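testing teh design pipeline on a random one, pls ignore if ur not involved
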């Protein structure tokens, strides 16, 4: 196998592994609150929203230290161990216990930071400047396809059910645990890559994660240096402006990945389909994500129009979705009890409108995330790893805050928060993009005068 084929093989295995793990985890997150409200065990007092808040809070803090862990342990083993913790979290739902539920929430937050840091290193090592766009696209498509399979299973398995029994719960979560473990085992198929750079040449990934020939001390020294660089980078004008946009992606990530599915499952007027519609909603979120990611990934090759039109499309699509959700969903849907809600908003709840909004939420999310990744890669090509660490830090801390207030806030207030932050996040993104375009034009002018 040629070196290029070997690298592409590694990217495909990486994507398939993440597809299996997140098929299990995202499906778990989508149905967690619905399952918990249907528990007959009065000894269990956990909240799916609180669990996700803990996960994203710990994830955010752990992003500051995860490069050091991966530098010492290595990316492959880091991903394997992280995958095991993901599987343990999902397995807790087979026989829920409050202490185990919240304890594994803490561990999976740490594991998530390590997993994504290792993923970034693996993607970087197996790519070059000519293949990074293609490889990122392949990985994104495989990762987002995870939204299909688990939710498709939920849709057919829970068809016609208004209450989730213990047998239903155990069957689903045993299956999801096995799926997660399969993805974890697949990490062992990733083949080691040799460092192909010249002896004196370094990139940001190597600055953080080192290479296999470095001593543990050198790796740790580089990790500490990268940590300091991340802190310094956090206070630059561009990062501060983009942090508002990133904060919005954290809030809407919480909404479409946990809150909206719970809302759909709580609407009694959807009849016997209310629980299976959660799975269908997840599928259409995935359709929007993959469609948007594919289209805008291809459009990124032609930068004539810049990134602003895509972000503008994203915020318009999301505002339309929020407007329709506000009219379609009862206000108390996010915090409804086990019996659900019989309330009506400003129209009789429509299944078609609810699923269409799922598609819009996924499409808008892909608009923001593809363009944020693009502009970070453009602005910080020399310091990409610290920049992306800050991106994950801000996104996850805002997701944690949103999952926390989802326990208490009615739907209208959650939508209002996203509208306000999304509006200002779009403006700050535009500001950074205009400055980046001006800098690129000036650079091109300088080159043409040489």
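output:
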């Amino acid at each position: 196998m040629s070196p290029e084929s070997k690298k592409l093989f590694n990217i495909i295995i990486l994507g398939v592994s993440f597809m299996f793990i997140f098929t299990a985890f995202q499906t778990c997150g989508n149905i967690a609150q619905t399952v918990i409200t249907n528990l007959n065990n009065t000894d269990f007092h956990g909240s799916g929203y609180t669990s996700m808040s803990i996960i994203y809070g710990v994830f955010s803090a752990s992003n500051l230290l995860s490069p050091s862990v991966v530098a010492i342990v290595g990316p492959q083993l880091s991903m394997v161990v992280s995958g095991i913790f993901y599987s343990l979290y999902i397995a807790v739902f087979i026989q829920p216990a409050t202490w185990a539920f919240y304890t594994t929430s803490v561990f999976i937050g740490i594991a998530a930071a390590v997993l994504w840091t290792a993923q970034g290193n693996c993607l970087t090592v197996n790519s070059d400047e000519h293949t990074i766009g293609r490889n990122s696209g392949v990985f994104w498509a495989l990762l987002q396809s995870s939204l299909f399979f688990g939710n498709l299973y939920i849709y057919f398995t829970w068809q016609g059910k208004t209450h989730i029994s213990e047998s239903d719960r155990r069957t689903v979560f045993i299956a999801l645990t096995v799926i997660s473990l399969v993805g974890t085992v697949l990490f062992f198929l990733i083949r080691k890559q040799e460092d192909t750079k010249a002896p004196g040449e370094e990139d940001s990934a190597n600055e953080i994660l080192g290479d296999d020939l470095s001593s543990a001390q050198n790796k740790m020294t580089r990790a500490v240096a990268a940590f300091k660089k991340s802190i310094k980078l956090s206070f630059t004008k561009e990062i501060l402006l983009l942090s508002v946009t990133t904060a919005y992606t954290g809030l809407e990530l919480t909404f479409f990945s946990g809150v909206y599915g719970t809302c759909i499952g709580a609407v009694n007027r959807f009849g016997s389909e209310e629980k299976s519609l959660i799975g269908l909603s997840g599928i259409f979120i995935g359709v929007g994500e993959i469609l948007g990611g594919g289209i805008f990934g291809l459009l990124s090759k032609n930068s004539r129009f810049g990134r602003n039109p895509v972000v503008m499309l994203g915020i318009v699509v999301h505002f339309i979705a929020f407007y329709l959700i506000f009219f379609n969903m009862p206000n108390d849907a996010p915090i409804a009890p086990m019996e659900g809600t019989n309330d009506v908003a400003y129209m009789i709840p429509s299944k078609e409108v609810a699923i269409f909004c799922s598609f819009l939420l996924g499409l808008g999310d892909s608009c923001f995330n593809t363009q944020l990744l693009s502009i970070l890669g453009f602005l910080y090509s020399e310091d990409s790893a610290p920049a992306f660490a800050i991106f994950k830090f801000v996104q996850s801390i805002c997701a944690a805050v949103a999952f926390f207030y989802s326990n208490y806030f009615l739907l209208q207030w959650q939508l209002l928060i996203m509208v306000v932050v999304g509006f200002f996040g779009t403006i700050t993104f535009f500001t950074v993009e205009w400055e980046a375009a001006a800098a690129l034009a000036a650079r091109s002018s300088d080159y043409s005068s040489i």
